[in-house]
Amino acid sequence: MLPVGPRDNVGSMWTIGEVRVTEIVELTTTSAAHWLLPDATADRIREIGWMVPHYATPEGKVHMTIRALVVESEGRRILVDTCLGNDKQRPVESWSMRSGPFLDDLTAAGFPPESIDTVLCTHLHVDHVGWNTRLVDGAWVPTFRNARYLFADVEWEHWQRDDSGMDQVLRADSIQPVIDAGLVDLVATDAQLTSHVSLKPTPGHTPGHVSVVIESAGQRAVITGDLSHMVCQAAHPEWGSPFDTEPGRAEATRRAFFRERADTDELVLGTHWEPCAGYVRSDGDVWRV
C-alpha cells in the first residue's frame, strides 16, 4: 500500500470523521539510517524493496522528518509534539541554534500560537518539546501561552529520577519554563482528550511514551510518536534505537502496534516517517506500510 496524503511545510492535512489533522514540518532529511537504528545499514534498507522510492532512495538512505501535528476536535486545537525549536544548544549540529520558520508555518496553516489550547508531548525527548518555549529578551517563555501542556504522569515520574538521563539544558530551556508558568497538567497515559481523541500507552522508547488515537464517524487514525522512528521497523520490529529506554519493551510495543493495525483501514501517521501517512499491511510474518 502506498503512503497517502500530501506533504509540504504547511498544510498537509487528513480528515478522520469530524477530526482534522494538519502537518507542520520543521526539518526533513535524507540520510543513512544507522545513526538512529544501528541495524538499518544501507544494504539492509535496500533489501526492503517496498521502501523505495517513497521512503528510501535506491542507495539505501532513508527519508525522515521532524514534524508537529495539529489535531482539531470539538473546537479544540491540540498540538502534538513541538519539534526542536529555535536558538537552543543541542549536541546534533543541524538541530542546534536553529532559526527556522516553524511558527510562521504554523500561523500560515491557520494556527497562530495563541490559538493553540492544548500541547501534548508524546514523550520528553529533545525533538518533541523544543517549541514548548521560545527565546524572548534573553529568557525562555512559553510559546503557547493560552495552552495547557500535557505530560503523561508516568513519563514525568521517570524523568524525575536522578539516573533518568534528563539533559539539564533541555529541562532548563524547554520544560521548566512551562512548569514555572503553571501551564503543565500531568495526565494518565490513556487519558481522553475529547470524545474523539485519546492517548494510548506505547511504552518502551520511554516508560511513559504515548501515542494519540483518533476515532470519529467510524474512521480511525493513530499518531505514533516514537514507537516507530522509521517504516523499516514494520519489516524489522527488532531494529531498535540506542535511545530506547527499554529495548525489549519497545520491540514488543512495535510488534503489537503493527499486528493490531495490519490489513485494516486505520490510518497511521508516523511522527518521523517521511511521507507521514500510510496503512499497515501483512507481509509474511512481518508488515509493510
Structure description:
The chain is an alpha/beta fold and 289 residues long. It contains six helices and 16 strands. The strands form four sheets. Strands 1-2-3-4-5-8-9 form a seven-stranded mixed β-sheet. A five-stranded mixed β-sheet has the order 10-11-12-13-14, with no helix packed on it. The longest helix has 15 residues, at 247-261. The chain is globular and about 55 Å long. Mean pLDDT is 95; it is low at 1-8.
Write a short abstract of this structure:
This protein has helices at 42-46, 102-108, 153-159, 168-180, 232-235, 247-261, and strands at residues 10-16, 19-31, 62-73, 76-80, 118-120, 133-136, 139-142, 148-152, 184-187, 197-201, 210-216, 219-223, 267-269, 277-278, 281-283, 286-288.
Keywords:
single chain; 289 residues; alpha/beta; five-stranded mixed sheet; disordered N terminus
Rg from C-alpha positions?
18 Å
- Summarize the helix and strand pattern as letters: EEHEEHEEEEHHEEEEHHEEEE
| Helix proportion | 10-25%
What would the principal axes of the Cα set say about the shape? globular
Main sheet attributes: strand count, strand direction, barrel closure: 7 strands, mixed
Helix/strand layout:
Elements: E1 10-16, E2 19-31, H1 42-46, E3 62-73, E4 76-80, H2 102-108, E5 118-120, E6 133-136, E7 139-142, E8 148-152, H3 153-159, H4 168-180, E9 184-187, E10 197-201, E11 210-216, E12 219-223, H5 232-235, H6 247-261, E13 267-269, E14 277-278, E15 281-283, E16 286-288
